[in-house]
Structures are given as structure tokens and as C-alpha cells.
Amino acid sequence: MNDRYPTGLRALPAGLSLLLAAALSCMAVPASAKPQPPAKNTAKSGAKAPAKPAARPAAKPAGKAAVKTGGKSAPSPTRNAPAKAAAAGVAAGAVAAGTAAAAVGHAPKGEPGLSAAEVAALHQHAEQGEASAQYALGSLYKRGQGVAPSAETAAQWYEKSAQQGYAPAQSELGLMYANGRGVARDDAQAVQWYRKAAEQGDAVAQNNLGLMLAEGRGAAKDPAQAVQWFQRSAEQGEAAGQYSLGVMYATGRGVAEDVGQALRWFVAAAGQGHADAQFNAGMLYAEGGVVDRDMAQAAHWLEKAAEQGNAAAQSNLGVLYANGQGVPASDEKAARWLERAAQQGDALAQSNLASLYASGKGVERSLSQAYFWMLLAAGRDSSLTAKRDSMAQPLSAAERARTERQAAAWKAKPAP
């Protein structure tokens, strides 16, 4: 089986480093820590009109499963975002969601659009002091549905509703303070509003409050308390809470390390479409050890995450197809997944794709393409310099110069 993969494409078991995204890097925080869009709405709530998002993991030393927490080491916030993780059997890669996960928000139920008359009626009810209408109106302004988008106006309506004790509005207001959208960023205010909603049973707020406590944002760092809130969120079926709880079990933060429990919660969130949880579940199955190694399950979950644009999952899935591990061997599918990850800037995938072009497996042999992808990979990973130089040797000076210009102009493409 191992003789199927091209030179430079490492087999899965070798050097498998499990990066479960550092959640907190991705949490409700990412939007404020980095210029990213605010956390996505992903909660469930009866009358609260919430929806669910996705999140990410944290890194541990190779040999032990590392939990995704933000792309690298704490649980990720309620907004499910792609996180980054180390690629299996290749070099460590970034995990999705987040991408580290960002704090989650509520997504309204029902039809996406409202007529002008319906918006006017909602506005009237909100002006009359109806908390649910104020919350709904704030959500329209947040999304720009039926009205001009305005984070500031959204925050004003959320606050009116939150002051009346409406949990979904309290949760959304906390998210806006955490991300600095529509209001000045204020972690203490974020924690205050998350806590009010969490104590009323809002699963999204419970996860986001846990994220703040896990990282010590707006309150003293308290991983044990964070675990309690993640547990409450997870038990209500909130995918982001399940993911965050899995990260804590995988990393032993605030709770005894338990990879079996981590896998249980990752699988629960993965089943709801959480990309980072899918990636982590796949990596844990590929790693084996505490849990039985199961390459078919590893491939199943990595493919789910890969289909959502997770570059690390795409890279690892390409290796599985090249080696025929957990899936029927297919050089063509290996090349397809490696290219998708390589286009997103994954250095490991770029290196492996270069090897495929050099050998002509799964793609038409092209030494210039091999050099192109290895140039990009070596630009991110200096350990690949020797391979880059060896791939340049068969090319003419003109071919090298042309390929180097192409590589210099190349830009990574975000996941679709």
C-alpha cells in the first residue's frame, strides 16, 4: 500500500501530529482580535430564533492528540468557524473553523426576507416595547434584511430587548461586545450579557461564556467553570458547545484529559456539520491509541470537513486516497484534494502535490508544475528548500525564471 504514494508523500501514521484547533483563538474573540467577520449565529432556541454555527481546536506535541482550540489550543466560541489543525501524516497544518472558532450567535428562523409592511409592523411592535420584536428588529439590522444594515442600530435594539431579560438578545448583545460590532469592544460587558443569557439556559451563550472563561477574557480565567458551561451547552445539543467540550477533554483543560470523551463530543458536533469537529474526529480515528484506530471513520469525517473547505482535512484526505487508507486508493482523488488544500496555501499539500506532478500520478506529469508548487511550499516551510532546489535542476533557466515569476504572483484562495 505504501508504495503507491509518490516520493515525498508521507504515510498517515508517520509523524501524525494532531492539532485540534486552538478554540479560543477562534472564539468570539477572533472577530475582535483579527479583522474578521463577527461570529456566526449558531444556536438553537425555541422562540429565540437561533441557528447553529461551527468552531475549531488547539495543538499538542506530536504523539498525543492535541485539541483544536482556535487553530491551536483552547475551545472555540459558539460561532462555528473553521479552525486549523495539523495535517495527518504530513506536516502540521492549520485546522479550520476556524480556523479557530469565533463566538456563535443566534440565527433567526423563518423566511429570510420580509416585506416593507412586515418590517414596519415589526418596528411598531418594537417601539411599543415588545422584547421579542426588539430582538427580531435588531437581527434584521444586523443582517441587513428589509433594512439598511447597521451594527449600531442592531446593538441598540438588542440592548432594549436584553434589558427586559430576553435571553437571545442578551446573547447577541454579548457577542457584539466581544467582537466590538456596533459597540466598543468590552469583554467585561460581553461576559455580563453572556452570563445573563446562559443562566436562562441559552445554549449559545453558555458556550460563549465558557470560551471567555477558558481564555480569561472579561473575567478571571477559570477552565473548570468553562467546562461546566460547555457541558450545559453540549447537553442541549449545541454543536459549538459540544466541540468546545471535546477540546477541553482532549487537552485536559479544566477536566481530566479523556480522549474517549473528546471523541464522543467531537462526533456529536461533527454529526451536526461542525467542520472543525469533523476534522478532529477524523484525526483521532486516524491516530488511534486511546480509541481504536479506524481509518474508514477517519476518512469519513475528514471528507466531511474537506467538503466544507477545511484545508488541513483536504490535505490529509489526499494522503489517504494516495495510500488507500480507509478509502479505495485513487491517485486522481488524491491529487484533487491536495490541489484544493494547496490552493488555500497549505504547505504540506503543496509539497505533496509537487511530488504528484513530478511523478505523474493522478495528474499529467509536469516538472514545471512540480517546481511551482514546491516553490510555494518551501516559502512556508524552510525544511523543503532542498526538495525545491532538486526540482529546479531539470528545468531550463528560462523555465525556472518563468515558474518563479508565477509563484511570486500567486495568492492563496479562500475556501469557497
From TrEMBL:
Q: Where are the stretches annotated Disordered? A: 31-81, 385-416
The organism's superkingdom is given as: Bacteria
Q: Does the keyword Signal apply?
A: yes
What are the boundaries of the signal sequence? Answer: 1-33
Which Pfam family name is an example for this entry? Sel1
User: Gene3D superfamilies, from UniProt?
Assistant: Tetratricopeptide repeat domain
Which SUPFAM superfamilies does UniProt cross-reference here?
HCP-like
Entry's InterPro entries?
Answer: Mitotic_Regulator (IPR052945), Sel1-like (IPR006597), TPR-like_helical_dom_sf (IPR011990)
Q: Tell whether Signal is among the UniProt keywords.
A: yes
Q: Please note every region of biased composition (Low complexity).
A: 43-74
Keywords carried by this UniProt record: Signal
Q: What is the protein name stated in its UniProt record?
A: Sel1 domain protein repeat-containing protein
Q: Which organism is it from?
A: Delftia acidovorans (strain DSM 14801 / SPH-1)
**UniProt lineage:** Bacteria, Pseudomonadati, Pseudomonadota, Betaproteobacteria, Burkholderiales
